[in-house]
Amino acid sequence: MAVLASCQHKSKAPQLGLPAQAMLSKLKAIAPEATLIGHQDDLAYGVHWKYEEGRSDIKEIVGDYPAIFGWDLGGLELGHSVNLDSVPFDKMQKWMKWVHAEGGINAMSWHGYSPLDGASSWEISEKQVPHLLAGGKGHQAYLAQLDQLASFFSSLRDEKGEIIPLIFRPFHEMDGSWFWWGAKHCTVDEYKLLFRTTVDYLRKDKGLNNLIIAYSPDNKFHTKEQYLERYPGDEWVDIMAMDNYGDFRPGQENQQAAIDKLTIVGQLAQEHGKLAAFSETGRETIDTPQWFTASLQPVLEANEYTRSMAYVLLWRNGRKDHFYAPYPGHSSEKDFVKFYQHPETLFLRDFAAKVTKGSK
Q: Is it the case that residue 336 has pLDDT exceeding 70?
């Protein structure tokens, strides 16, 4: 069984490397005036295509790519050549380099497989977390998984050979219980220590200075105290975020609930000196044609704290019954163009231009 004594770390501001600090500074400069729009696996596939160079469902509607490009690492830790959504890691690496060169930002989630038995993130019959901590039977296997991630992160280099910064969001939606690191499958202290161990190993032991770390519960919280219940501490977090699909479900949409929760995130980020973000959201199949301007935009613009979100990331366009951004011919296409044209939403071209202008 793992030893939990190190859970009593004193929190302090993280010491970021120059690549990560530079990217974080760009995001902080933009956040007060606009929100970057992101999309998961945007370059990899769309509703009617897969692995076609230069394609993007979003670009084919508005003429520009998203500013944030989401990717998932699940499967890399086991040495797989493709991730859990069948995206080849060699192609992902190439796309991530392109994103950086074009002035965009890469954000990585990790639906990791268990180091103990190879179970997927959603297989929750066995407790995993206690055994992955120092002194646990799976600790060395877990560090070996992190070695795989570290190798991939380190391989992300620009044309000058300099390491590319990225947002890394491990163990998300921990307030739910659908993942093996969820609230019913480990204690608060176990979760915090797993998060801290992960960040410390990658940053300190492996020497990675390109990681901006995001902490993102699901929408289960209603108070600041609930949001912070499993927060590992300021030393291990750069972005305070949230995922929220539940408050946008058909027949159950509750904009005020979404506003209240994003407000909490924005307030806490301000209090802790962190960046705020809306790390995952969307309405599956977008069955309401005006969802972007009638539902998402009002939530983002509700008050000074919701407007402080540095970015919002829409989930992937996996297939005709599972997509979160519009594609050409979809009923929400015109509405998304209006969303794109709004002065407080930024896509790749405008974001890159603002960053270039601000650096002069």
A: yes
